[in-house]
Amino acid sequence: MSIALGTVTPSFKLPGVDGSDHALGDFSDAKLLALVQYCNHCPYVLAWEDRLIKLARDYADRGLRVVAVNSNDAARYLEDSFERMKERAEQLDFPFDYLFDASQSLARALGAERTPEVFLFDEQRRLRYHGAIDDSRDENAVSRSYLREAIDALLAGEEPPVTETESVGCTVKWK
Amino acid sequence: MIELLYWEGCPSHPEAKALLEQVLAELGRDDRIVMTEVRSDEEAERLHFPGSPTIRVDGRDIDAMGAGGRPSLTCRIYHLPNGRVSPVPSREQMEAALR
After folding, report:
1. Band of pLDDT at residue A34, cut at 50, 70 and 90
2. pLDDT per position as a tens digit, A123-136
3. Do A47 and B86 touch (CB under 8 A)?
4. Alpha carbons A140 and B18: distance in angstroms, whole number
């Protein structure tokens, strides 16, 4: 079961595709922190990938940090290995950190279930939005951009108009 | 025979089935879709199941490119005519396989 709204970000320290370890405290300068349960192999992730990349770029200078986290069992899903993560991040020039949660501890602490699945935390690092990036994997059919709406609201000091939605995607591949 | 093999861990098979039924109706066909749930890695191996959903018409995968993928309990990747990635096959793939 996923963490409840208002819950403080679980602490973590995970290796990133940039070759460095990244801890929660490393993002303390960010007004908003979006942890996105992510992976390489899932078609739902791939369908939303361009939109997540664009969103990260659009809000980078407004205080949002996006952190993608792959917690899948890479022994069974070879596309999700750390090496393949590095390749994908380089190939698409990810404008966000891409971390490998090999022990699956962060996914368990968040109660993550799907990829992609967004956990958006405010400046006090309390969960303010949880769920889907928007309401359709088909970019042309999107009518609500939940994550953008939540980010805009929080940056304006307001409540997100929608705080929880269902994440549609692949299951997290537990060991 | 039209078979739709699926894994419950991937949410795409209801959408794929609905689209397949729609395409069949538009083509004036009343074939029954044989639904087969794949529950384990062993079944995936035995059924040569490269991911969910997999649709076969008379034993032939409607997406030849992905048919030889490693058998696995996973969501299958399809490529749409516009180049985008999708968890379900395109209408065009289904139509081509059923004509």
Report:
1. very high
2. 999 999 999 999 99
3. yes
4. 20
